[in-house]
Amino acid sequence: MSESLHNFSDVVAWFLAGSLLSQSESAQVLSWSRSNPVEAVSAFAEAIDLREAIYGIFGHLAAGRDAEDEHLNHLNRALKEAPPRGAVARTGAGFRWRIERDQTMAAGLLAPVVWSAGDLLTGKHLGRVRLCANHQCLWLFYDDSLRGARRWCSMQACGNRAKTQRHYLRRKAQ
Ligand SMILES: [Zn+2]
User: Least packed by Cβ within 10 Å: which of 38, 71, 72, 75?
Assistant: First the structure.
C-alpha cells in the first residue's frame, strides 16, 4: 500500500475530497496550519496514528479476527477528545454533522473520521467492511453493492488487475 498522505495539507485535501470539510472550512484549517506549523505537524502525526488504529480495528475484523484493545483504546481516546456532536449542517446534497472547531483544531478535524468509525463499528453494516482480495493492495473498503459480494476495493484498479492475471494464467496453462 503506497502512502498518499505526506503532510497536513494532504490530510486536508483528503477531507475536502471526501466532503468531510467544505471549501471554506478547508481554507480556514489550512490557514490555521500555516500560522501554527508545530501544531499542524503533530496534528498530522495524530491523523496518521489514528488511521493506523482504525485500519487495525477494521482490518482485524475483516480478516475474521478480534480487534485489539490497543487499537480500540486509541479510537476511544480520539472519540473522547472529539468535540460534541452538537448540530447538523446542510451540505449541497444532504446533511452532515457540524463541527465546533476552536483551539482543538486537530480533534475537530478528525472528529468526522472517529465518529464514522464508531458508527460503523456499532452499526448493522460492520460485515460490509472488507479487505481487498488483491494481496498486494490490502485496502479496506466498504461494500455498498446491492448483493454485498464485492471482493476488490475498486473494479478499475484491483478487480481488473485480478481478471487480467487470471486470464494470463489461463493462457499460460493452455
Ligand atoms: Zn484493492
Answer: 38
Give pLDDT tens digits for 131-142: 898 888 878 888
129 CA to centre of ligand 1 in angstroms: 13
Q: At 93, is the secondary structure helix, strand, or coil?
A: coil
Taking alpha carbons only, the member of 128, 122, 107, 129 closest to residue 47 is 107
Q: How many CA atoms lie within 13 A of 76 on its CB side?
A: 7
How far apart are alpha carbons 56 and 43 in whole angstroms?
Answer: 20
CA of 61 to the centre of ligand 1 (A): 17
Q: Which of 109, 128, 126, 108 is nearest to 118 (CA)?
A: 126
Q: The dihedral of CA 15, 21, 24, 30: what is its sign?
A: negative
Q: How far apart, in whole angstroms, are the C-alpha atoms of residue 79 and residue 117?
A: 10
Q: Is the dihedral of CA 113, 102, 43, 41 positive or negative?
A: positive
The domain limits of the chain are: 1-123, 129-174
Rounded to the nearest angstrom, the distance between the alpha carbon of 143 and the centre of ligand 1 is 12
pTM, to two decimals = 0.78
- 64-118, pLDDT tens digit by residue? 999 999 999 999 999 998 888 888 988 788 888 887 766 456 777 888 889 989 9
